Amino acid sequence: MNIRIKNSFTNRVNVISSTVKNLLNFIRGCKQKVSNRQFLIDPDRKEPILDTLTNSPYSSNSITSSRYTFYNFLPKQLYAQFSKGANLYFLFMALLQMIPDWSPTGQYTTIAPLSIFVTLSMAREGFDDYRRHKQDTTENNKECTVFCKDGSWKNEKWKDLKVGDLVSIKAQEWIPADLLLLSSKGENGVCYIETAALDGETNLKQRKALEETNSLLNSPESLSEFRGKLYAEGPNDDLYNFNGRLEFNDKNLTLTNNQILLRGTILRNTPEIYGLIIFTGEETKLRMNASKNIRTKAPNIQKIMNRIILITFIFVLLLSAVCTTMSSNWSKRIKANQWYSRGSNRDMVTVLFSFLIIFNTMIPISLYVTMEIIKLAQIYFINHDIRMYDEETDTPAESRTSTINEDLGQVGYIFSDKTGTLTENIMLFKKMSICGQKFLHDIDGNRIDSDELLKLFISSPISKKKTTIKSISSLKRSKNRSSSFSDDNNNNDNSDEIIPTTPITRQSSIKSNFSMIAPRPTTPSKSKKTLEDNSILNTFDLLTLIQYFSNSSFGQRAKFFLVAMSLCHTCVPEFDKESNDIIYQASSPDEFAIANASKDLGYAITDRSMGNVSLRIHNDIFNISDDENNNIFNQTFQILNLLEFSSKRKRMSVICRFPDGRICLFCKGADSVILERLRVIYEKDSNDLLFDIGSGIKTDEFLDKTVDLFPMLDDNNFLRQQTIQHIHEFAIEGLRTLLYAHRFIDEDEYISWNKLFQEASNSLINKCEKLEEIADLIERGLEITGATAIEDKLQYGVPESIDKLRLAGIKIWMLTGDKRETAINIGHSCSLIKDNSIKIIIDQKNISNLKIINNTPKDDKSHIVIIIDGETLTTIEQDDELMECFLDLGIKCDALICCRASPSQKAFMVRSIREKLKDSVVTLAIGDGANDIAMIQEAHVGIGITGREGLQAARSSDYSISQFRFLENLLFVHGRWSYVRVSKFALGTLYKCMCFYLTQGIFQIFSGFSGISLYEQWTLAAYNTLFSSLPVMVVGIFEKDLNYDTLMTIPRLYKTGQENTEFNVKVFLSWMFGAIYHAIALTSVPILIHGYFHGYEIRANGSPQIFELGLVIYTCVVFVVTIHISYLQSHNWTILSHFTSFLMIFGWFAFQIMYSYAYPIESKSAIYDVRGVFQRVGNRFNFWCVVLLAVSFALIPHYFLKTLVNFFEPTVVEFYQEAEKDQKYLEKLIECENVDFYEYKNDKNDELHGTKFTTDQLPFQDDQIFMSPEKRSSSPLALYQNPLTPITDVGFDEVTTRND
């Protein structure tokens, strides 16, 4: 009995623990771990399939992207709204105000506006969610064709689809759920899908049904007989991998991602497919990716805002405490002796809370709501800026958030991807290395003279045939003979004869989604070039050598390399009827460029299926032979295995069977990965290598029926050394390199390996890891085949943009997956590395010297660039001390390049700097590919490039642009303006509240600290909304402290935001001291006039009533606040600023006129005599004199003080504001701004950037009317003398070598 009770208790505890854990996961947004899925396939079933884990039906196919329902909207929104500190503060104050006799300003003056603002915020959320509901309803009610048990088809709504249903999808239809592709009416069971809505990639993806299901399940009759069992992984968010197994016809069939069609994709170029639903609704991969727990971003300025609000709140508490103390003292000393105040004593708590209620609105209740409106206007300007519109791609800038607009004006670090971000991601096949000779892929370039080409070939180490040939032209007459020529025959040739050729042109095969190769002119150049100019051979020369030396070692190797290029990729050929040409669907621009280059060279893939590739080889590309058809061969290669590329493997391989039955592995990838897998060459023992695996290559009939085992060991050494040298040269030129290698595999070895491969493919656990391990077993003992080099063109304007960003004080770190030499070359090209830069290369060899380098002082005139690779960074990450030194060094230096970096390392670098600097510096990450998403989300500001790698990065970013150069405009103009506007709006809002509500505190001095309000309650409540809101909003939306051209041409002005000069505690206190002075002046002047000038009374008889006095002071405040914000603190005065200023003042008087008539005579606020007062007072000349005197007394001293400060201590911004008034002088400043600090020479000849200026031509001279000589050191000239804060006194030259 006790055991059963104990077990029951344990079970209950486990259930509760599991429930709590699931609830916490739900709250945190974490995905729950789901077990594998398995179910029986039976078209005749009537009941839904049950989940074996929960014993309940699987989730429906209905999706919900909305956040709320009708029942939970109100509670969720109330929690969300009052989780904000400001709203909670005002709710507390509103509750205090509701207590009878506690509030001197009425019971509803706080709760009413708070309710309005909260309601507006809730309404906005509700409207957004209502649109999501409508979109969900539209999608859930789409129809799909579902197979019925009687063998017919019927249409059902998507929301009614269930796991295990068989569906039919036709061309151009959306995939309604995650499906297993059973059969396709496309060729060989292939179908094509568009995944742009899923991952942003516009190129079509190929999927292929298993041969067993495609051949047997291709009709309704066969589907009705379909029985089996499916085993699949549980629901997850991995879009690119799938592990599963299908038991069908007594076979276990392995399922991969190649048989899965995901929800959110569209069927293209395929008539119809049949599919089995595996995952539905919220368990589809699309929905699993839709709700990740991403770091919430908040503006950097918010931390200062929180401190300022805290300071204001402490001030309110202190002011209330002082007033409470003075009230108690006044009551004891004076009030007790006044007969009219007897019996009206209040306790200290009531008095304290009364004062808190009076002063609570010094923290503006509308601050956050109004700021949101301002930021929405700012993103409108960003989205509609024509200067950031890319006409070529029809892509404007787009803002996906308004929360962090001001952060764009405070960026200190930029972390940039290279490919597609700094470069165009338009791949041009430029060069290749074959047999130790490099070739330029420029088929319209000038050809080398034929005889010179022959001499080069004969003298090259790649040729071992001892031939003596004077002219290639002799081969034309002896093309049917052997390649060995006698001297006698050659002596009879005319050495000046020119071989007639048919020009080769790159076909316009650019009708796919990549426009990688520009069409060339069809007329070849008539001029010739000689070898004396050391020009690189081009593809005309390559094809000539292949044509005439087909049987030579070079010819065999060259043709074999072209076969490797043609087979080792995954491009899918399609025949275009309009152009009568083959076009390629490629998953990457690199493969597209390689496939088209091989086609240009006469090796074109004409058809591809999962098991075979058809290759058309044109051996006589020049049409020299009389029988053209004999020179075109079509060969079919059987694709046995495809070892796919991954960021971890950094290579891909294809195992194929040649037409003669031999099995060959082609591998291409990063040279660092391929080189370590090459066969080791033993120079002393030649016999061991003669028949080593991969050392010989046999050719079949399409390779001239010759056998060439490549027994030349010296050639292998030469080939390896030269290829590595060429790769290094290509990388220095900034080209993306790929190294090709191969090996021939014995049949028995392949059978043994393939068995292991199939076992790993059928594994449901750690399938990817197992496949990588098995692939590594076969990718060994390789021989070099050749190398390719692809150019990724630098985007227009990138070097100029980086120069300006650096002048703005922004440090740029380039994080790329390319090799070191390529990254360094791009660094030079894009101006990240200067000619006089000191490069510090950190690798595994000198990593131990990192501490020494870090401790070496840095000269502030040196430009230091750190270069590190991903492998070294991995080592540094494992040592906290080394990591700390590396980060310190990175912060000290001016730029950093990290090559061979993985996506996780990119994000790690951003996170490390962000945490190291403790969010004191704003970080920005910019990229264009899916591998940049983690980095973009880690940074304070994420910028996505709408590039050729898809839209994933752009969709996951905060802002997106189409070109890197637009980053200038986004940061220097919109970012800086947003920072200035938000700063002035926040300061102006706090100022107007302090100025107005402090008059209540000053009035307490004249009212015995009684806690009575100077203003009528509803007039008081309307101040923030009706009489002071528009001026600060206009400043927040339209303020331009400097013009567009000035900001774009003088990057150093961007430092205003980096240094937080516009919004900090010091600036806030200066505004508040101004507000305090204004409040004192505006309250004291009217009261003192009434009290001490007995001959003058505003009213006809006696002292003014309290409402009348409050009316005078209120009027003065409206004037002062409007003028101060719209004119004294705003630089650009526009018609809109004049109109809103007039509207505020006119609106105040119009309100008083109407309110004076509408105010009820019998009012609960009996102490305020409102009815008809304004009409009586407004007609008096004395009223306007008091208002004019008080406003002048408040503003004139403030104006003179501001003028004096601007004259003797001008800021950089004020200096350039003055300079903008003189266009010629501004042009001189801009000319000097082009000086690069690191090239600036502060010597006697005043040489600036190669241009000599005389002393009177230089800016900032003593005779400038707005700059005194004594203050020149604090002028903007200091930016040129010392634009970067020096870190230490000595340079890095002691431990590094300057780059020459």
UniProtKB/TrEMBL annotation:
Subcellular location: Endomembrane system; Membrane
Compositional bias annotation for Low complexity: 479-499
EC number: 7.6.2.1
Residue ranges occupied by any P-type ATPase A domain in the UniProt entry: 142-207
Keywords of this entry: ATP-binding, Magnesium, Membrane, Metal-binding, Nucleotide-binding, Translocase, Transmembrane, Transmembrane helix
Region (Disordered) location: 479-502
Primary residence: membrane
Domain P-type ATPase C-terminal: 954-1211
GO molecular function: ATP binding; ATP hydrolysis activity; ATPase-coupled intramembrane lipid transporter activity; magnesium ion binding
Catalytic activity entry: ATP + H2O + phospholipidSide 1 = ADP + phosphate + phospholipidSide 2; a 1,2-diacyl-sn-glycero-3-phosphoethanolamine(out) + ATP + H2O = a 1,2-diacyl-sn-glycero-3-phosphoethanolamine(in) + ADP + phosphate + H(+)
Topological type in the membrane: Multi-pass membrane protein
Top-level EC class as recorded in UniProt: translocase
Residues binding ATP: D417, K418, T419, E591, F645, K668, R736, T816, G817, D818, R900, K906, N931, D932
Gene Ontology cellular-component annotations: plasma membrane; trans-Golgi network
UniProt keyword annotation of Zinc-finger present: no
Binding locations of Mg(2+): D417, T419, D928, D932
Cofactor: Mg(2+)
Ranges of residues in domain P-type ATPase N-terminal: 55-111
Transmembrane spans: 308-327, 348-369, 1068-1093, 1105-1127, 1139-1160, 1181-1201
GO biological process: endocytic recycling; phospholipid translocation; post-Golgi vesicle-mediated transport
Catalytic residue positions: D417
Gene3D superfamilies attached to this UniProt entry: Calcium-transporting ATPase, cytoplasmic domain N, Calcium-transporting ATPase, cytoplasmic transduction domain A, HAD superfamily/HAD-like
Alphabetical list of InterPro entries matching this protein: ATPase_P-typ_cyto_dom_N, ATPase_P-typ_P_site, ATPase_P-typ_TM_dom_sf, ATPase_P-typ_transduc_dom_A_sf, ATPase_P-type_domA, HAD-like_sf, HAD_sf, P-type_ATPase_IV
Family statement: Belongs to the cation transport ATPase (P-type) (TC 3.A.3) family. Type IV subfamily.
Protein name, as recorded: Phospholipid-transporting ATPase
